[in-house]
Amino acid sequence: xxxxxxxxxxxxxxxxxxxxxxxxxxxxxxxxxxxxxxxxxxxxxxxxxxxxxxxxxxxxxxxxxxxxxxxxxxxxxxxxxxxxxxxxxxxxxxxxxxxxxxxxxxxxxxxxxxxxxxxxxxxxxxxxxxxxxxxxxxxxxxxxxxxxxxxxxxxxxxxxxxxxxxxxxxxxxxxxxxxxxxxxxxxxxxxxxxxxxxxxxxxxxxxxxxxxxxxxxx
Length: 218
Hints:
Blueprint (H helix, E strand, L loop, with lengths): L1 H11 L6 H4 L16 H20 L9 H10 L4 H28 L8 H23 L4 H12 L8 H9 L6 H33 L6
Helix pairs in contact: 3-5, 4-5, 5-6, 6-7, 6-9
């Protein structure tokens, strides 16, 4: 990879104008670092798997009230290795959330949220919220009975918020009931807004880790 990057650099001159971005400050590794410090990296790997498998699934999925369920069935039964790609996407989503939660617990236990890393902690918690929202919006996309009624219950919870509950529920659903408008809204959030937000959060998270170094364990 180094030779390839040097070959590109001789033609585009990447290193010189981006030294601050490419070079990592020499902080050194703190003591008592163990495999639990790899939980964040594992979460990032599952995020990349979700992006890759999601792009492949989007080539065949039809976000339509009449065609969504049929397209998922076609992906599973007719498309070559479609069942594998869908399975990888499903399990990567579950493991992505699990590893983010484990990473959050590890950071909390080791008190790595203390200054000057409090902003990084906030970015990580926001990333967990986005991951949960991604899982919630993706759950409706197969458009079967289980997905429909789970979304019915989940979106109804927004209606319990004082004063603005009814407005929030209508906003999330795209109307009074769960229908094709809800499916389009969830699909848009799942493949556009939430992944883009997660990418920005991850960039900020990694940038702060790079600048501040790894927090010392207790």
